[in-house]
Amino acid sequence: MRTWLALLGLAVWVGGAAADEIRGQYVEARTCDVWVGACFANAEMNLTGKNATLAWHIEKGALDGVRLDGLSVVVVVEARDTLGLKQSGPGKAVILVDEKADARQREALVKLARKLGGLLTAEVVRVDSAPITISVGRCPEGGCALVEAGVVRIETRCIHAHEDSVCGHEDNFYAPLTPGVKANSAMVTEHTFVGSGLNKTWKDANRRGAYIGSFSIQN
Questions:
Q1: Summary mean pLDDT of the chain
Q2: What are 96's strand-pairing partners?
Q3: Predicted model pTM
Q4: In sequence order, which residues have a C-beta less than 8 Å from that of residue 1 and are 6 or more positions away?
């Protein structure tokens, strides 16, 4: 009897853990290279790469009992130092919430973005709603993605080692900026932010500065 009860308790615990999972697609684009040789990365440090856009499309999951299936959230960040380095202070963030979200979902999406962004989302300067499209794996190699969120647009393609290599020693020099991510680096063909709230806008292109993949966290 005790063994049966113990197994039942384990099943309930495992079921609860699965229910707490939030998973989906992830896209990240930065204003510096992430697939890069150390010599080139060292030349960029604290001169560029202080801005990024992070995008999550939630395929399944809930936060604080609020279902977020099918919704998306995008964060545009401005860091104190080159992203990927230890930060000397909190970053600033603009959060774009899926326009399909109701009031409770909007609150949960903002909370999720701040949780995943950590220090980079410590100071949220603006929260807006927008129609958001996040599409990952648009080519067989898996490096093609598209993000459209009003004032934000990201488009990527696969990195081709022979054509896109500069020094021949490129690798994923920086890890993705948020936890729970499984992703491959990709070439940014467009990374645009034309909104307000940060100290700058940009239109970046032809940079080896993206991560494309999936995310999964327990909350």
A1: 88
A2: 74, 128
A3: 0.88
A4: none
Res 189 pLDDT > 90 = yes
pLDDT tens sequence across 99-126 = 999 999 999 999 999 999 999 999 999 9
pLDDT band at 80 (very low <50, low <70, confident <90, very high): very high
Strand partners, 91: none
Query: Rounded CA gap, 141 and 127, in Å?
Result: 34
Average pLDDT over residues 29-58: 86
Cα separation of 155 and 19, whole Å?
A: 32
* Rg from Cα positions in the chain: 19
Rounded Cα distance, 160 and 183, in Å? 16
Residues 6+ apart with CB under 8 A from 112: 22, 56, 63, 68, 73, 219
Both tokens of 124, joined, read 């949220």
Nearest to 116 by CA among 157, 61, 172, 159: 61
Confidence of residue 3 (pLDDT cuts 50, 70, 90): very low
